[in-house]
Amino acid sequence: MNTRRELPESPYLTAAGGRSPHRVPVWFMRQAGRSLPEYRELRAQHRMLQACFDPELVCEITMQPVRRHKVDAAILFSDIVVPLKAAGIGLDIVPDVGPVIDNPIRTIGDVQAMPALQPDQVAPVAEAVKLLTAELGDVPLIGFAGAPFTLASYLVEGGPSRHHERTKAMMLGEGPTWHALMTALTDLTIAFLQAQVDAGVDALQVFDSWAGTLSLADYREYVLPHSSRVFATMAAAGIPMTHFGVGTAELLGAMSEALTPGDARVVGVDWRTSLTDAAARVRPGTALQGNLDPVVLLAGWPVVENAVRRVVEDGRAAVAAGAAGHIFNLGHGVLPATDPGIITEAVALVHSL
């Protein structure tokens, strides 16, 4: 059962729903951790996946940027491979490398042997959501999952990859195996998101981090049907949903098509595409999220101030051009070397504008 809270004054939920907030809402991808000294202190004592399955730790880490930066939304501290690990797939998150898969998926037999995700396997995540909704007050909580294509890229490659050679070779040359894998991962993604919704998250974001490696034609044929099923299934939750990828300028229209028509559809935009250009590419009624280059935060306050003002103005122009709303964010995640004080000042500046 969905135990979602009523948060009528939330600028984030207001903008995501296509209404006019009293201020531009702002939050940052990878705000839970990365640059915060209080996060690093905790992580020195816990491995990443261990932390992701500890409800109290998840709650504490998720709350840290809300306390420090006064952002308008919290995003659940987790990782896109958490549901894979929970389901029983052998993997680890290796420091300075990323997710590494014990036995990569290479054949139809490998796909058929993949375990399904059961709700009890992510009970610690659900418990963390309940702790957070009790502590966050009027700040909404965003749940998330990796999109089927991005999960597939890790499973097939065996870890991070620059060119996704094995993934694309399977996609293009072994259609039945590919679609069987994507179907299984779509089911897993839905199960993970549903567990978060049932626990009480206020919004969802699906990260298709590596979709930008694909052509529009390949994305439409091999990825869009599966991502669309994720959003179509989760639409029953009646909460805002965001679709995000990196390097996806040519895919923004198709990515907006994956979102089920409704009142709260958001597409994330990276820094390579202006928000006004994105507004012309996405479906009418879609809000936009983004899109400050994360590296700007390393360039000193005068540069940050000018860049933040430009993004806010671009967001206003995008809304005037037809976007349903604008949520200020980075074009990707906070970089570890970022000064937390700069983030706090950037949030205050956005709110002042």
Describe, in plain words, how this protein is organized in 3D.
With 353 residues, the protein is α/β, with parallel strands linked by helices. It has one domain (12-352): TIM Barrel, CATH 3.20.20.210. It has 16 helices and 9 strands. The strands form 2 sheets. Strands 1-4-5-6-7-8-9 form a 7-stranded parallel β-sheet. It has a two-stranded antiparallel sheet with strand order 2-3. α15 links the parallel β8 (287-292) and β9 (326-330). The longest helix is centred in the middle third of the chain and has 25 residues, at 175-199. It is globular and about 55 Å long. Belongs to the uroporphyrinogen decarboxylase family. It is found in: Cytoplasm. Pfam families: URO-D. GO terms for molecular function: uroporphyrinogen decarboxylase activity. Residues 25-34, 142-158 form the Uroporphyrinogen decarboxylase (URO-D) domain.
What descriptive keywords fit this protein?
353 residues; single chain; two-stranded antiparallel ribbon; TIM Barrel; globular
Question: Which value, in Å, is the CA radius of gyration?
Answer: 19 Å
Strand arrangement in the largest pleated sheet: 1-4-5-6-7-8-9
CATH class: Alpha Beta
Question: Hey, roughly how much beta strand do the residues contain?
Answer: 5-15%
What's the CATH topology name?
TIM Barrel
CATH architecture level-2 label: Alpha-Beta Barrel
- Helices and strands: which structural class? alpha/beta
Rounded average pLDDT: 95
Which H/E pattern describes the elements? Answer: HHHHEHEEHHEHHHEHHEHEHEHEH
User: Oligomeric state of the chains?
Assistant: single chain
Shape: globular
- How many β-strands, per DSSP? 9
- Tally of helical runs: 16
Protein name: Uroporphyrinogen decarboxylase
Subcellular location: Cytoplasm
Pathway: Porphyrin-containing compound metabolism; protoporphyrin-IX biosynthesis; coproporphyrinogen-III from 5-aminolevulinate: step 4/4
Enzyme class: lyase
